[in-house]
Design a protein that fits this description.
Strand content: under 5%
Number of strands: 0
Structural class: mainly alpha
Number of helices: 4
Radius of gyration: 18 Å
Oligomer: single chain
Shape: elongated
Helix content: over 70%
Distance between the termini: 23 Å
Number of domains: 1
Largest sheet: none
Length: 131
């Protein structure tokens, strides 16, 4: 019997959104290095808007993953990670520390969603019998 919860897809979407953001943050500077893309302000503006898309995707995933969740520590972890993630993406041009915080926020979002998947799907299937 497969254990399900009402927000199952939210965790997978949150993990995927965070992983894609990490890939984007690592690859775009590497691809832009040495090309005219780094000097074209319009192209850079288009890539910045992708950051806001990641914030919206992860925000929706956190909302639906925590909407009916009873675990307060997990809710704090996911919402706190989202705040770190969103603030770091919005202000990443202001200081290099925000870039590092973006990776921290993404990592915390991935960890929070994995913990939520464990709590809601794996843990209920594990039955320890003291006999």
């Amino acid at each position: 019997m497969k254990a399900t919860h009402s927000h199952g897809k939210a965790d997978y979407i949150g993990i995927l959104g965070s992983v894609l953001c990490i890939i984007h943050c690592l690859l775009v500077p590497a691809l832009a290095f040495g090309t005219t893309m780094a000097h074209d302000h319009h192209v850079h503006t288009g890539l910045v808007s992708l950051d806001y898309l990641f914030i919206v995707i992860n925000g929706a995933a956190v909302y639906f993953a925590t909407k009916e969740h009873k675990s307060i520590p997990l809710r704090v972890l996911l919402w706190g990670a989202l705040v770190i993630f969103a603030v770091s993406l919005i202000f990443e041009g202001a200081h290099p520390a925000f870039t590092v915080l973006g990776y921290v926020g993404s990592g915390l979002l991935i960890a929070g969603h994995l913990i939520n998947l464990y709590i809601c799907q794996i843990a209920p299937r594990l039955k320890f019998r003291a006999s």
